[in-house]
TrEMBL record, chains A, B:
The keyword Repressor applies. Keywords: DNA-binding, Repressor, Transcription, Transcription regulation. Residues 4-58 form the HTH lacI-type domain. This is LacI family transcriptional regulator. PANTHER family: HTH-TYPE TRANSCRIPTIONAL REPRESSOR PURR-RELATED, LACI-RELATED TRANSCRIPTIONAL REPRESSOR. Transmembrane segments: none annotated. GO terms for molecular function: DNA-binding transcription factor activity; transcription cis-regulatory region binding.
Length: 336, 336
DNA sequence: CTGAAAGCGCTTACAG
DNA sequence: CTGAAAGCGCTTACAG
């Protein structure tokens, strides 16, 4: 037998489908008697409401689309997890898509989410706001950007302050006597990549440190580019005494390269990472990092989507980032 | 204006909705002329098919539910990522849920997935197969278990051989002269936890090593229990000279504790981890691990769901696990 | 409080 | 090849 429908429940309870619907969706206008009959009939039959049918009728799916660059990145995994849990607590489902740092795949995902008629989307955007993203926005679908934004695209967002942490990191290193600080930058097609690099440049200049452009290596937010960045920087005629990376995966790559070269972190090379990822705890000494809060970002993004759906005004949020001092930095030229 | 429907397209193209539907779903019986008119009308209007309506009518959603214990666990993130990408390549969406290692939450997620009428589910199950899981199965919904299984529940699954890797690891350590091998076990309410522990016990006995039950600490697949396990084992009057952990997060915990105690891995304590997680590369020397293939598991699981949907027979798959020798083990009592 | 009826946006036999 | 019509499983004004 097929999954029972509301009709089957109505028949068994001896009431109309309208009454069944009202009882099941907790509409106030129902008598205790029918409530009773319906509930027990539904239980007997093992009735499972069909969300598809309900959505079609209500023109609302109770589903939110989540588009991240890659769940395998711990930072985004944390966001995805929190979004899912928060949504679940409001009886909403989440449709997860990975853009894999590809604009083409991002478009594909957006199309899918639109077809699924998600009520809103939480996205870590990339690219210039053309393609499917533009279409989605013109549809008036509630969208919240998380972590990243797109210039010229007016969408509520929850991001981190990409400046303070970097500035604190540079000042801290300057205080330790470092004059040449290597920087593994994020891709300049992302807002986070751009803002963090700008902050680095500004802080380096303000502190009167070496502004040699060779100290900046542009990576792509993947670990391999962290490795490549570390190699390039350490191969300079006058290599940096400290290295800063613009996200967790690239930090990871830098650390891998240090391990391969047998460099003692904090002594041979000072390293400051980005994102307070649990696995950085494996490094010895513990890594000094620029921390922000992906979990809070995810939770806030869901709140914002819910506000948008409720027609309430929302304002973008910028969370703080800050330097968490641990043991991976030391005086310049320590034991070299 | 609302999102255009098939009616709007029909009106603009000057054909019936039936024809529009046929063209859009690539039904063979359509003339080139109407195809042309429909396609351009759809494009003009920016028509987006409503997956909800289609699903209701077709009684098929083209969506597959994915229930993992926790996406923040790199092992499951990898599975989730592959499942999503593979599904996407077949134009299917994935609904992701995290059970957070809680049977209650697992039930909640299953209910949600049923209501969403996913075509099938890929789940990393836990518990005894009662509750919502039993209901779901009695519904006849295609389900594939991944990584874990449940005793007495007949569901096609793709798992790893939980025995070989462990046996190889124990033999390897025995060959290095270790007599007392500590084991941080997974929760015994999971099939993987049970099978791996059984393999450890068998291998230890076969190699004639110390079978002291105190050498086994039962963790819960979270990093904190790896820390606790390492502490408990190292606090024994006669502590083990090598430690093996039953999953990535607990391995992680063991490594954290080693770092905190300043133990030199491979010299002061031999360590073998489970899962070939990228972040284990941060450890020095590189970690010897028992590796299996989450990505392949995810891809296979999708194939199996598709076969089930197509009414084809499927057989469970057991992938291999094996020891990957790197540098984290050394002779027993090395430099103690 | 309750029921009959219309309709959400599609698909698909059934005729032609 | 094409159209009219029924129907997927719900919800919700509209009467009563």
């Amino acid at each position: 037998m097929q999954t029972p429908t509301i009709r089957d429940v109505a028949a068994r309870a001896g009431v109309s489908v309208a009454t069944v619907s009202r009882v099941l969706s907790e509409h106030p206008s129902t008598s205790a008697a029918s409530r009773q009959k319906v509930l027990s009939a539904a239980a007997d039959l093992g009735f499972r409401p069909n969300a598809q049918a309900r959505s079609l009728r209500r023109t609302r799916t109770n589903t939110i689309g989540v588009l991240v660059s890659d769940v395998r990145n711990p930072f985004f995994a944390e966001i995805a997890h929190t979004v899912e849990q928060t949504a679940l607590s409001h009886e909403m489902a989440t449709l997860l898509c990975n853009a894999d740092e590809s604009t083409e795949q991002q478009d594909h995902c957006l199309d899918l989410l639109v077809s699924q008629r998600v009520d809103g989307m939480i996205v870590t955007p990339q690219g210039d706001g053309s393609g499917s993203l533009r279409e989605v926005l013109s549809l008036g679908l509630p969208v919240v950007f998380v972590d990243r934004t797109i210039d010229g695209v007016e969408v509520p967002s929850v991001t981190s302050d990409n400046r303070t942490g970097i500035v604190e990191a540079v000042q801290h290193l300057a205080g330790l006597g470092h004059r040449r600080i290597g920087y593994v930058a994020g891709p300049q097609v992302t807002s986070t990549g751009r803002e963090r690099l700008a902050a680095y440049r500004e802080a380096v200049a303000d502190a009167g440190l070496d502004t040699d452009p060779g100290l900046v290596f542009e990576g792509d937010f993947r670990s391999a580019s962290g490795v490549a960045g570390a190699r390039a920087l350490l191969a300079l005629p006058d290599p940096p005494t400290a290295v800063l990376a613009a996200d967790s995966l690239m930090t990871f790559g830098v650390l891998l390269e240090c391990r391969d070269r047998g460099l003692r972190i904090g002594a041979d090379l000072s390293v400051i990472g980005y994102d307070d990822i649990e696995s950085f705890g494996l490094v010895s000494p513990p890594l000094t990092v620029i921390a922000h809060d992906p979990s809070r970002m995810g939770a806030l993004a869901v709140d914002m989507i819910r506000d948008l759906l409720a027609g309430e005004p929302v304002t973008s949020a910028v969370l703080t980032s800050s330097l968490v001092l641990r043991g991976s930095t030391g005086p310049a030229g320590g034991t070299r």
